[in-house]
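SUBJECT: A protein chain and its fold
Encoding: whole-number codes for local backbone shapes
Chain under study, with its fold:
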Amino acid sequence: MFSLIKSASVYGVDGKGISVEVDIASGLPQINIVGLPDPAVRESVERVRAALKNSGFTFPMDRITVNLAPADLRKEGTSFDLAIAAGILTASGQISAVHFENTLLLGELSLNGSVRPVAGVLAMLEQAKKVGVQRVLLPIGNVKEASWISGLELFALSHLNELDLQKQEQDGWEHIRADQAHESFSFKNSSSTLAETAGDDPGDFGDVIGQHQAKRAMLIAAAGKHNILLSGPPGTGKTMMIRRLPGILPPLSEQEALEVTKIYSVAGKLPGSSHGLLAQPPFRAPHHTVSAGGLIGGGSIPKPGEVTLAHRGVLFLDELPEFPRQVLEVLRQPLEDRIVTISRSKAVFQFPASIMLAASYNPCPCGYYGHEYGDKRCTCSSSIISRYRSKISGPLLDRIDLQLEVPRPISLDHVAASPSLNTAQMKALVRNAVDFQKERNANNRSKSKGELTGASLRKAVNIKPDAIGLLEHAFEALGISMRAYDRMLKLSRTIADLASSESIIEEHVAEAIQYRGLERQHS
């Protein structure tokens, strides 16, 4: 006998519908899974066999063939267990196939028949809704996440034996749904809601002593989503300030929150305490031992890397020259295109990568070159310093908008007496700049400055003639590239937005120019 059950898998960060076809024929007792399964899928045979036996069902002693279609796509993961079990039960006549019409089944099985949650449910259900699926049977542990996709009937299972409606003397999935309902879950007509991301408190910018120029740079970076690089001796607050950067970023829109939540769902990193979409921009800080694949994604079926996990948020690389150069160079394309493209022999995968790169480093391996004070003296030779700095290539620096030194404060009495912005004040300034930018873009009916280049960018930013003259003088005097020229123009526009100015004037351009100092040190 033959049975067809709908299931799904994840490819990249998108869901893909998979048909689980089961055929039972006379022959020696064995079960074969075809359709390019990976080891985790092949091992589902033993999980399904034990789960059926321990749930009161009979495992057919016949020749069983399971085909995962389309057969030319490699399948991985454990999300097919429930569909394979349902296919065997319907093909052997133990339960009716009518109950699974236009229904998607997802879930991993334990040996005792319990249904365990799987990763990537949000992406799989989003794709299922597009192709017209109406009902979904899934683990009870995934219901909260699945309820963020509206328009689907969701039915939660905690055990495999709940598939047998006749044994429970019930006539439809509606009864199982009502019996299994939990107050904390919404199973139908649920709407997407935003919730704060749970995590450690990074602290307040008010805790940072002095460093007013660096905090000003943080403000500009947050208002325009600009990449930023801080250099300075140890203990000047570089890491401290960057870790506080997410606190002044505006919250994600609902569409952006859905994008970020889907990525974390696919990666299996969705916080269990979250009761809604992740509304706060993500912050990722990989260690300098991370591989190129760990940074941008990889694998036989590529999975998101740190760059994609930081989508719509901040990717923090502390001690930048400690990262291998070949790892840093893979950032060049994502920083420019805001997307990661990974090619395999049978498919090309694309991952979103709209990130703010925030990085910090010491001026030399010992940390004190150019910042000697007291008994702190640089012990590095010129060749060591040159080799250390060569890890940061010119093309990578070219893509970083704000580059500045963070010096050691000269006098604690002086910095303590001067007023210091806290996180709440900086967040309010960023919000005002973003609102002003949205209003200006709506009036001009133009794209965001981050999406414009070349002549269209220069036309949209509304720059005064004298400011253009200053920018062109800097282009010639500093020998910067056209990419850096456009980035300085975007940076000037953000500075103007912070000042609520419709036009870019000389003052805004002059401030943007001063943030390219580190580039000259590396040339």
